[in-house]
Every structure is written in C-alpha cells, then in structure tokens.
Design brief:
heterodimer, A: 155 residues, alpha/beta, 2 domains, five-stranded mixed sheet, 8 helices, 5 strands, globular, B: 256 residues, mainly alpha, Arc Repressor Mutant, subunit A, two-stranded parallel sheet, two-stranded antiparallel ribbon
C-alpha cells in the first residue's frame, strides 16, 4: 500500500509530528483486488477504532497521472503490518504534489519542507511530462507558476 | 516558522482539537482523561493562531460544520466583542462562513452578522503574506467566501474524514451532549459561562454579562435549567448565586 499526502509526509518524517491531520490517502494497493478489499472493509472497522467511516480514502488513485516519472521506484518503506507493507511517496514526489494542490496548507507544508532550489527546479522541469499521462494542463501550469514563485531555501 | 511561544500555543490548540475529535496525529486522546473544552474560547484562539498554520482553518471549519450545534452562540458573540482583536473579524467570519456553507438554516448566522469584512484585502496566512508572488497567486484563486470577507482565501472542500465520529466525541465529552441538545441556545451559554467564566455564578447580573443575554433571558434560561436539575440558585439577601450541578468540568481550563 502506498500513501501520499500529509499522512505520508508525517509517517516518513518529512513533516513534523503533531500538526498533520491524519487521513489515509491511498495512491495504490497491489494487487488491485486487495485495493477493492480494503475499500470494502475499511468502513467496517471505523467504529471499532474510533474513526470516521471515510477514513480510508482511495480517491488519490485518480492523481496517479500527476505523478512524476519513476515515483514507484522512489517510494520509501514505512512499515510491515502482517502481510501488509506500507510505503510513502518520496520527498520530491510529495513536493510535486504539494505544488500541484497549491492550497494554503500545502504552502505551509512546503515551507516546513524547506525545499531547495534544485528541488523546485526539478519539479518545474519534470511537471510538463505529466501532461503525457492526461494531467489537466491548467493544474500543471498553476503548479509551475507556484513553484517559480516559491522562495527556495537554496536561493 | 513562528516564534517559540506561538509554536507552544499552536501545540496546545492542536491538542485541544485532537481531544475534540480532529484526528491530528499524536497521542491517542482516549488513552488519557478528557478535560472540559471551552469551545468558544478555543474558536477564538484558533482564529488568532491559524495565520501560522493554514491547516487549522479547514480542520476547524470541518469540525464546526459537523458539530456546530455544540457552540454556545450567545457566549461566542459576547467573547468576540470582549476578547477578539477586531482585525481578526474577517478571519473568523470566513471560518464560520466556510463551516456553514450550504447549511439551511445557517448555523452561525447570528454570529457572522456581528462581524465585519477586512478594510484592505489580505491573505489570512503568514506564509502567503510573506511573499508578494504567493499573495498574487492566492489573490487569483480566491473564492466567493474570501471575496465576501475581503481576504485572499482559496476554496477547499471540507474534509469529514479527518474527524472522529460523533459517538467517540460525545462519549469523551458528555458536556457536548448537553450543548448539542440545546442546539447552541442561551442555556448552552449559561452552562458554559458557569463552567469557564470566573465569577459568572456570583449573580444573575454577572451571569448575564458572561453568557451574553439580557437579565430576563438569563432568568428564563435558569428557570429551565433549574427545573431539569442542571443548576441550582442559592438566594440570599446579598443576591442570587448560581451553582452548576451537571457536567461540572473536572479540569476546566480557561485560556485567553
């Protein structure tokens, strides 16, 4: 299972503990039939665990066309829970998605991540390639505008 | 990053929201005893601090949308007038409007009516204000609520998935059950003032000042609360002292 979003950032220790609203944004579960099983069973354990029935969010699957090439190879391990291996997207992919989302809380996270000039340059260079996967051109353009506007900690 | 004092204040506010059912990561609240939450002052403290932590805006709006019935509106209006910097009224207005968007009737209508939009447009968040190009970016993406309050604010859907279910929250905070039963009417303000406002129970006049109602309204509310065993009035020559009987918080914490 591969996580994205603030939860992934917190679990991979890229974002600080204590300030991230924990939701489980799931990008991918392999094999795919297990993804279906997770979606089906997740609400059933919500009450028992004191969670909202919508705690398991498979919607980020629809963001896969926004991912930079090679993102699967860059994922980092979070832990093994019985037969379940949990991974989080890598720092550069988290940064790229934060630029793409571009909400104020993403700007806060980008500030916390203290991204370097090299990282923002890489995102600016790589983001146009996601257009080949069917990404929304407006979203990509806006993300690039934001990345260029960003004060890079590396100068 | 904010200064250390602000960081500590943020930790406290985030901890209280975690206790109220927002799933910020950290210690599981059920593992320790709940303390009573002064919901109205928590809203004001959040309004002051969310400039440093944009995530607080959406999580708080989401919580208020789901559990707004627990907010004592008379008392909130009174605290806004007494304790909130008027420059933060646009921020609170945008927060409450976001919470009540698409609600009929609007839950915080009477509170929002007492707030004013900003004189000069600006972003609510320090990270945006610190960078003119980010300010331009936020300005271009400001939605209807931001325009209403003359603040740069990007529309973002509420996210119910980051909340604990009502059963978890009400089991942890029995006083919220009473607040929700009253649906924010003056009885909720009376109970909250008796729990959190120093000296509010000394007289009906003091209670009226703390809870935000007229003396006649407070008497009516007290009649009802006394009849149902929530408060007791002790009458003497010196006046009427009011005692909170039900849901007296064990660790009431009042922060200004």
């Amino acid at each position: 299972m591969t996580l994205i979003g603030g939860g992934a950032g917190m679990l991979s220790e890229l974002l600080p503990e204590g300030r991230t609203a924990v939701d489980v944004d799931v990008m991918e579960v392999t094999p795919p039939e297990v993804f279906d099983l997770c979606c089906y069973d997740a609400p059933a354990i919500a009450e028992e665990c004191g969670l909202n029935p919508t705690w398991f969010d498979p919607a980020p699957f629809n963001l896969r066309h926004m991912m930079l090439a090679g993102w699967r190879d860059r994922t980092v391990p979070i832990g093994e829970f019985g037969p379940l291996g949990v991974r989080a997207i890598a720092r550069i992919d988290l940064i790229s998605l934060k630029f793409s989302a571009g909400r104020e809380r993403d700007l806060n996270d980008l500030e916390t991540l203290q991204i370097t000039a090299a990282e923002s340059r890489l995102v600016i260079e790589q983001l146009p390639t996601v257009l080949e996967h069917g990404a929304d051109p407006d979203v990509v353009e806006r993300a690039i505008v934001l990345a260029k506007a960003w004060r890079c900690s590396g100068g | 990053m904010a200064d250390p004092e602000t960081e500590r204040a943020l930790d406290v506010v985030v901890g209280e929201w975690r206790d109220a059912g927002v799933m910020y990561d950290g210690p599981i609240p059920s593992a320790r005893r709940a303390h009573a939450i002064d919901v109205e002052r928590l809203i004001l403290r959040t309004t002051r601090l969310m400039t440093h932590m944009a995530r607080l805006f959406n999580t708080t709006a989401t919580w208020l949308h789901a559990y707004g019935d627990t907010v004592a509106e008379h008392r909130l209006r009174r605290l806004i007038a007494a304790e909130l910097d008027p420059r933060l009224e646009p921020a609170l207005g945008a927060l409450l409007d976001t919470a009540q968007e698409k609600q009929h009737p609007r839950e915080f209508g009477s509170v929002v009516a007492s707030l004013r939009p900003a004189k000069e447009p600006h972003s609510l968040f320090a990270v945006v204000r610190a960078n003119s190009r980010l300010t331009e970016f936020a300005s271009a993406r400001t939605g209807a609520i931001g325009e209403r309050w003359r603040v740069y604010l990007m529309d973002e859907p509420l996210r119910p998935k980051i909340l604990r279910p009502a059963s978890w929250i009400m089991a942890r905070h029995p006083d919220f059950v009473l607040r929700a039963d009253f649906k924010g009417d003056l009885r909720a303000s009376v109970m909250a003032s008796l729990a959190f406002d120093e000296g509010a129970g000394e007289s009906e006049l003091a209670l009226a000042a703390a809870a935000g109602g007229s003396r006649a309204q407070i008497r009516n509310a007290l009649d009802n609360l006394e009849m149902t065993g929530r408060v007791r009035r002790h009458r003497s020559k010196a006046g009427t002292r009011i005692e909170l009987l039900e849901f007296k918080p064990a660790e009431a914490r009042s922060r200004r």
